[in-house]
Design goal:
Blueprint (H helix, E strand, L loop, with lengths): L7 E6 L1 H4 L13 H12 L6 E6 L5 H13 L5 E5 L2 H5 L13 H19 L2 E5 L11 H20 L2 E3 L1 H9 L16 H15 L1
Helix pairs in contact: 2-8, 3-5, 5-6, 7-8
Length: 207
Amino acid sequence: MIFQAGQRVVFIGDSITDAGRTWGDPPFGNGYFNLVRSFVTARHPELGLTWSNHGVGGDTVRHLAARWDTDVIEARPDWLSVMIGINDVWRFFSDGREHEGVPIKEYEDTYRSLLRRAVETTACKLILADPYIIEPDSNDPQRAMTDQYCEVVARLAGEFGALHVPTQLAYDRVLAASKPTDWSDDRIHPNLPGHAVLADAFLKVID
């Protein structure tokens, strides 16, 4: 177990982290974050951890930059988990929203800057999770681009000594014996079993 007693754990990201916490199921949402929180709490009740979900639907790394001071620096996490990049890629493939896509160099530069500020200001430890698409065909254009953004996250995890959660690999494993619609209607937003795939990937790293 990576966490210590009394620590503050903050997760930040897009709608996959949000999972209803901003509208239907506050304050934790009904997705992977709440599954991770629930299992860690059940397994280690003696730790008395404080958990915060700062996911916001539709966010790219640009949106994280705009709210980083409030949602990360002021939160003073001991552990910070970041999963961002799905919308950065997806927007390039969304009719009428292509201009909202975040080029990979901007993505990497912004992400690196945010992590540096968090570590230098709060001394937090990091968990970085890949963006993903629930698509087994590596030649699919959105999947191919997503894989490039996953490489950025792996590289940043190495630079910062962060724990790395390979969420795309987690989906690839289940897709070897299933189809994308078993986990999501749109290849992005998971159903509950799809969120369990993500939570399981996190728990393998955390515990």
